[in-house]
Design a protein that fits this description.
The chain is mainly α. The chain has helices at residues 7-23, 56-69, 77-87, 91-99, 127-130, 155-197; strands at 28-29, 51-52.
């Protein structure tokens, strides 16, 4: 039976939700009780949004955290809840960067953890959910991945292109150095002639 690239997303959520069910962790994180934010505390959170732990974004976040820390997903549930409550799906890009010691992630060379490098939003939302302009609402309109922003994951092609660019830069630098060396030689020769005459 042939499988599509989107089957991997279904498997990812199925694996994580099965583990949650085995551990007795509910698939929905209840919203925190509404609290009056303390005006003196700039870090106070007033988010009152429940988190769907069966969503692809949450399953991706908890898997990334568990893999990075070498723990089971049960130890990372609250961290994944907080990430999606605070930053939503786009928080996966920040998490990915943070897990790489804060360095920016180039999704041309690193596979996106959310869309696995296809460049589209794997949940296949419709234009109304994403908020596309009315003139874009037509059949088959793709929505870019909110994490990698549709970056084309092709490390072999981009590496070759980057090597070509570096070779051109190196050739330009060598040529410029030779020109400067020639200029320095001429200046030294003139200075030497002047000092010999005087």
């Amino acid at each position: 039976m042939p499988t599509t690239v989107f089957d991997q997303f279904t498997r990812r959520t199925a694996d994580v939700t099965a583990q949650l069910a085995t551990l007795g962790i509910p698939l929905t994180a209840p919203a925190p009780p509404p609290a009056d934010p303390d005006p003196a505390d700039p870090w106070a959170s007033s988010y009152a949004v429940p988190v769907d732990r069966s969503s692809l974004a949450w399953c991706t976040a908890v898997t990334m955290l568990a893999d990075h820390h070498g723990t089971g997903i049960d130890r990372q549930v609250l961290a994944a809840d907080a990430l999606l409550r605070e930053l939503g799906v786009r928080g996966l890009a920040q998490l990915h960067s943070d897990l790489h010691a804060g360095a920016p992630v180039d999704y041309r060379f690193t596979r996106c953890p959310y869309c696995s490098g296809i460049g589209e939003d794997p949940t296949q939302p419709d234009c109304r959910e994403v908020g596309c302009a009315s003139w874009l609402e037509f059949a088959g309109h793709d929505h870019v991945c909110p994490v990698c922003h549709g970056e084309d994951y092709q490390p072999q092609w981009f590496a070759e292109e980057q090597m070509t660019e570096l070779e051109e830069l190196l050739a330009d630098a060598i040529e410029e150095r030779e020109e400067r060396a020639s200029l320095r030689y001429r200046i030294r020769a003139r200075l030497y002639r002047r000092t010999v005459r005087s």
